[in-house]
Design brief:
Blueprint (H helix, E strand, L loop, with lengths): L1 H24 L4 E6 L2 E2 L1 H10 L2 H21 L3 E6 L2 H10 L11 E19 L4 E18 L4 E13 L4 E2 L8 H26 L4 E5 L2 E4 L12 E12 L6 E16 L4 E8 L7 E6 L8
Parallel strand pairs: 1-3, 1-4, 2-4
Antiparallel strand pairs: 4-5, 5-6, 5-7, 8-9, 9-12, 10-11, 10-13, 11-12
Helix pairs in contact: 3-5
């Protein structure tokens, strides 16, 4: 009797421990470290020669905070801030500890390689006047490195171009101060959103997490860059493919349909099915046709 009683107790304990063990084994958010954003030496030299090094520093500082905010709000990562990496390294050294990025799963490195802030003029012969508009152009390369292997898993060049929404005649007083920064802030915000979306897609590709009739739910929220009206293609993963030259292993992607985003929420997004030849839960989705944001000019 004692033997059977012991077996019953062991079975009960296994039943209680089982769910907790399964939960502990569930995958969690990956840790990503964002290094301090910097400009290339060539760009810094050009900006210094033009006497606008201060403007470049303003862009770098704004982009630094914007990227952190955008990556954090994708809700895909645990973000280890490294904007003050130099100070952290000095503090760790004083305490006798080694400061390293090995606490993170991935490192996001961003280098700004081009920046222009200029006034463009157009002569309107029919009206007999000249109008001016401000243009801000920004270019950066973002690289994602897997810490465990030191392998770059993604490297992308991003370009942003913003025009002043207001054309100004030569008699118009130029805007200064906070108002003149609006266009630059808008450009850095767009750049940060593109970088954050790329980081999320490279590490956690967008997926269909639910399907009900002609509506699918995508695991992208209102901070991820997804927008109502976008058309996304849907792919099912097929067989494993081995590149005969490099030996790299990938998975075959089979096109199974298209969806159009109809609703975006703080948790996820819903889309209506346009084509369906086998859309199922777990399928990957990739942006096909974008839509213009309200603040894009």
């Amino acid at each position: 009797m004692k033997f059977f009683r012991l077996l019953s107790l062991l079975a009960l304990a296994a039943a209680l421990i089982g769910p907790a063990t399964a939960q502990d084994a569930a995958p969690g958010k990956k840790k990503i470290a964002i290094t301090k954003i910097a400009a290339t030496d060539a760009l810094r030299a050009r900006m210094a020669k033009q006497g606008v090094a201060l403007s470049l520093d303003s862009v770098l500082q704004a982009l630094d905070s914007q990227v952190y905010d955008r990556v954090l709000n994708t809700k895909r990562f645990e973000v280890l801030e490294r904007s003050d990496a130099d100070a952290l390294a000095k503090e760790a050294g004083a305490a006798g500890n080694a400061f390293a990025f090995n606490q993170a799963d991935y490192i996001l490195t961003i280098r700004v390689d081009s920046f222009n802030d200029r006034m463009e003029e157009r002569r309107l012969a029919a009206l007999g006047k000249t109008v001016r508009s401000r243009t801000v152009e920004l270019s950066a390369v973002a690289k994602i490195t897997e810490v465990a292997t030191q392998r770059a898993i993604a490297s992308t060049n991003f370009q942003v171009k913003r025009h002043d929404a207001e054309n100004r005649s030569e008699n118009t007083t130029a805007r200064v101060g906070e108002e003149s920064d609006d266009l630059m802030i808008s450009a850095t915000r767009e750049m940060a959103q593109k970088i954050a979306s790329r980081a999320a897609d490279a590490i956690y590709p967008a997926r269909v997490v639910a399907k009900r009739d002609k509506t699918v739910t995508i695991n992208r929220n209102d901070e991820s860059g997804i927008k109502v009206g976008q058309v996304w293609e849907v792919f099912a993963l097929g067989d494993e493919i081995v590149d005969p030259d490099t030996g790299d292993k990938t998975r075959e992607e089979v096109f199974v349909g298209k969806v159009k985003v109809s609703r975006v929420t703080p948790q996820n997004s819903q889309a209506q099915v346009l084509e369906d030849t086998g859309i199922e839960k777990g399928a990957y989705v990739r942006l096909k046709d974008d839509v213009e944001s309200e603040d894009e000019n």
